[in-house]
């Protein structure tokens, strides 16, 4: 069952490393319901996609629980 991430998150794609001319990207998902506060800390979830260039994307919605 697929989850529509765009309904609940703003997505920012960032290049976190470049090696031999190849860019490695990270997708940062920020809950739309989050009210930023510079005096607060927020938990994060990190998912490493290991699709071996065969299946899935970064991030593939099928890896996300409905919560």
Structural write-up:
The protein has strands at 9-19, 22-31. 0% of the residues lie in helices and 31% in strands. The model has no long low-confidence stretch (mean pLDDT 77). By secondary structure, the chain is an all-beta fold. It starts with 8 loop residues before the first strand and ends in a 36-residue tail after the last strand. The chain has a two-stranded antiparallel sheet. The radius of gyration is 14 Å and the shape is globular. The chain has a domain at 5-32 and 44-61. It has no helices and two strands. Strand 1 and strand 2 form a beta hairpin.
How do the strands and helices of this protein lay out in sequence?
Blueprint: E1 9-19, E2 22-31
Antiparallel strand pairs: 1-2
Keywords, separated by commas or semicolons:
67 residues, two-stranded antiparallel sheet, single chain, mainly beta
What is this structure, in a nutshell?
By secondary structure, the protein is mainly β.
Identify the quaternary structure here: single chain
Question: Which series of helices and strands comes N to C?
Answer: EE
Our Rg estimate from Cα atoms comes to 14 Å
By secondary-structure content and strand pairing, the structural class works out as mainly beta
| Count of helix runs | 0
Helix content: under 10%
Q: What kind of sheet is the major sheet?
A: 2 strands, antiparallel
Instruction: State the end-to-end CA separation.
Output: 13 Å
Mean pLDDT: 77
Shape: globular
